[in-house]
Amino acid sequence: MIPEMTDAPLLNNASLAILPAGVRVEIPAGTWLLEAVEQAGVQLSFGCLNGACGTCAVEVVQGASGLDSPSDAELATLERRSFPAGRHRLVCCARILYGEVTIRLAPFASPQ
Ligand code: FES
User: Fold this and answer.
1) What value, to the nearest 5°, has the Cα angle with vertex 105 and ends 34 and 51?
2) Quick one: average pLDDT of 55-70?
3) Ligand 1 pocket, mutate which of 35, 56, 71, 72 (most atoms under 8 A from CB)
4) What mean pLDDT comes out for the span 83-98?
5) Domain boundaries in the chain?
């Protein structure tokens, strides 16, 4: 279960909730998604770390507007891996800019 989120605006901070692990972490605005996931203590499979392999794709469940815009390379990888446009991001390519973002990892992810 995800801890209850606040309605108060976050100044220079953002939060990331991670499903299905059900954990949330507060992070500075601008943090890479991968760093936030690792900070939360959640395991995630990844490979190239440069947006080429698509191994680190996650579904963005809430707060997608709080992420930076995907690059053409990231979009190409998501399309090549057949992830639906606009619903997925690569955690090695995306930064959290503001607000409360919720992502869903592949079923193999679990708390450490
Ligand atoms: S680790 Fe390869 S795309 Fe993110």
Assistant:
1) 45
2) 96
3) 56
4) 92
5) 13-104
Q: How far apart are CA 15 and CA 34, in angstroms?
A: 13
The one-letter amino acid code at 26 reads E
Q: Is the dihedral of CA 23, 29, 34, 35 positive or negative?
A: negative
Class of domain 13-104: alpha beta
**What percent of the chain is modeled with pLDDT above 90?**
79
Q: From atom 3 of ligand 1, which residue's Cα is the shortest distance away?
A: 51
Q: How many CA atoms lie within 13 A of 4 on its CB side?
A: 3
Q: Is residue 92 lining ligand 1, measured as CB closer than 6 Å?
A: yes
Distance 45 CA to ligand 1 centre (A): 9
pTM value is 0.84
